[in-house]
Amino acid sequence: MTAITLAIAIGYLLGSIPFGLLVTRLGGYGDVRRIGSGNIGATNVLRTGNKGLAALTLVFDVAKGTAAALIGAMWGTEAMLAASGAVVIGHMFPVWLGFRGGKGLATALGVVIVVAWPVALVAAPIWLATAILFRYSSLAALVACVAAAACAGFVADSARAALIAAIALVIIARHHENIRRLIAGTESRISFKKS
């Protein structure tokens, strides 16, 4: 097994750990896929009303992206990029959940922190500002993805920029239903208050 193949396998398996599902079950909230959007990410965990579990999900999802990129980096840049792409795909299409996972934004942030940290410094505040201003997590994700891809073209080499752009495009594609709801005015807003 080559280093790149191993990096992809490790990245995918790390990405496929459904932390949102695990923390909500351990927290006594049952299956997070049965509430809100049915997603396993931090935004849907927030809909349980438990900000702590949502924050924990966010931290774990970011951490698995960072871990995968760092592990891949031990075998060189190509392995790092391979592991980085695989961890995001693993989060989106986890084998344990019938390949029905999350949207990948938090895990992608973890990847970008390692692959091109200046991009993370731009994209993360843009996500937060958009989310606070408009209270649409999906809109914030879309804006942050566009910003990350644009920024990467200026601050990262071509291989890293291409990876970031590809991840951004996949995340945007995963938000196709959200985009339709945003256009129709039926998208759910984020509630920062405990229900």
Morphology: globular
Beta-strand percentage range? under 5%
Count of DSSP E strands? 0
| N/C terminus separation | 50 Å
| Nearest-integer average pLDDT | 94
Which parts are unreliable, with pLDDT below 50 for 5 consecutive residues or more? none
Using only CA atoms, what is the Rg?
Answer: 16 Å
Order of helices and strands: HHHHHHHHHH
- Fraction of residues in helices? over 70%
Number of helices: 10
- How does the major sheet shape up? none
The class by helix and strand makeup works out as mainly alpha
Total discrete domains: 1
Give a description of the structure.
- There is one protein chain.
- With 195 residues, the protein is mostly helical.
- Helices cover 71% and strands 0% of the residues.
- The protein contains 10 helices and no strands.
Write the SSE topology.
Blueprint (H helix, E strand, L loop, with lengths): L2 H13 L3 H8 L15 H5 L4 H23 L3 H16 L12 H11 L1 H18 L2 H19 L2 H17 L1 H9 L11
Helix pairs in contact: 1-4, 1-5, 2-4, 4-5, 4-6, 5-6, 5-9, 6-7, 6-9, 7-8, 8-9
Short description:
The protein is mainly α.
Supply database-style keywords.
single chain; 195 residues; mainly alpha; 10 helices; 71% helix; globular
